[in-house]
Automatic annotation (TrEMBL):
Alphabetical keyword list: Hydrolase
Protein name: SGNH/GDSL hydrolase family protein
SGNH hydrolase-type esterase domain mapped to chain residues: 26-236
Pfam families named among the record's database cross-references: Lipase_GDSL_2 (PF13472)
Domain of life: Bacteria
Enzyme Commission designation: 3.1.-.-
Organism of this sequence: Bacteroides gallinaceum
Length: 251
């Protein structure tokens, strides 16, 4: 612990711009996680991850690409980014850690991407009852409301969940139902984004376009297993994030 604090003090002296600008928080599941903090893709709690090694602080996905873009292009603005994606998380998991990982960090901008695991667990388990879309929407709104009460000036960036019939997903059953439910959650997120005046990121539509344009022999080029983007896919996600956030003028 002493060594970690020494490193943090050293970073503060070496990089005085850190902590002086806007705080941008990304929260979600493995797509945001990107093996953040040397977690090896496992569901290690945020407090148990590497929070100081600047070589591994953001993981290796779209969140990393967004952070590296802004921090390299605007070094004088002191932008401070946080990755709080955890592999395997569904909306209920975010709810359990919302206070620690979303509110306590006091972000100025909150970027949320969640939903694919909610559907994944539903498809993989007994589901005599329809998926509770109304309950999911209510829980999603409640989390945003908690953050807005803590910071009424908070800017929201909401990403649509997505899936694809690629790679190992072709070997699983129930893709039609999965695809339909993921699109339903995407429509819910879009509706919430409109009502909350948030930036909306139509990742589902983006990947559908990319997959349609990709040669059939390369259907894993953008999403390799039906859920997780490839490096190329993450790059396109970051480009969409940057484009829409700058269009909204919040960063």
């Amino acid at each position: 612990m002493k060594r970690i604090w020494i490193c943090l003090l050293w970073l503060a002296c070496l990089c005085p711009m850190y902590g002086q600008g806007l705080r941008i928080l990304f929260i979600g599941d493995s797509i945001t996680d990107g093996n953040w903090g040397n977690s090896d893709g496992s569901a290690v709690p945020s407090a148990g991850r590497n929070l100081w090694d600047m070589n591994h602080i953001y993981g290796s996905g779209y969140m990393y690409l967004c952070a590296s873009y802004y921090q390299s292009k605007y070094p004088g603005k002191g932008y401070e980014f946080f990755n709080r994606g955890i592999s395997g998380n569904a909306l209920a998991d975010l709810e359990k850690r919302w206070e620690e990982d979303a509110i306590a960090l006091k972000p100025d901008i909150l970027s949320v991407l969640v939903g694919t695991n909610d559907i994944h667990y539903y498809i993989g388990g007994p589901h005599a009852e329809p998926f509770d879309t109304l309950g999911w929407e209510k829980r999603y709104r409640a989390l945003l409301d908690r953050s807005l009460r803590a910071n009424p000036n908070l800017k929201l960036v909401l990403g649509a969940p997505f899936t694809a019939f690629t790679g190992s997903m072709k070997e699983s059953e129930g893709f039609a139902l999965r695809d339909s439910l993921v699109h339903t959650l995407a429509r819910i997120v879009k509706r919430i984004a409109v009502e909350y005046k948030a930036v909306y990121l139509p990742y589902d539509e983006m990947f559908e376009t990319l997959l349609h344009e990709a040669p059939s022999s390369q259907d894993t080029y953008w999403i390799w297993d039906g859920i997780h983007p490839t490096p190329a896919g993450h790059r396109r996600m970051s480009e969409l994030w940057i484009k829409e956030v700058e269009r909204a003028g919040i960063l």
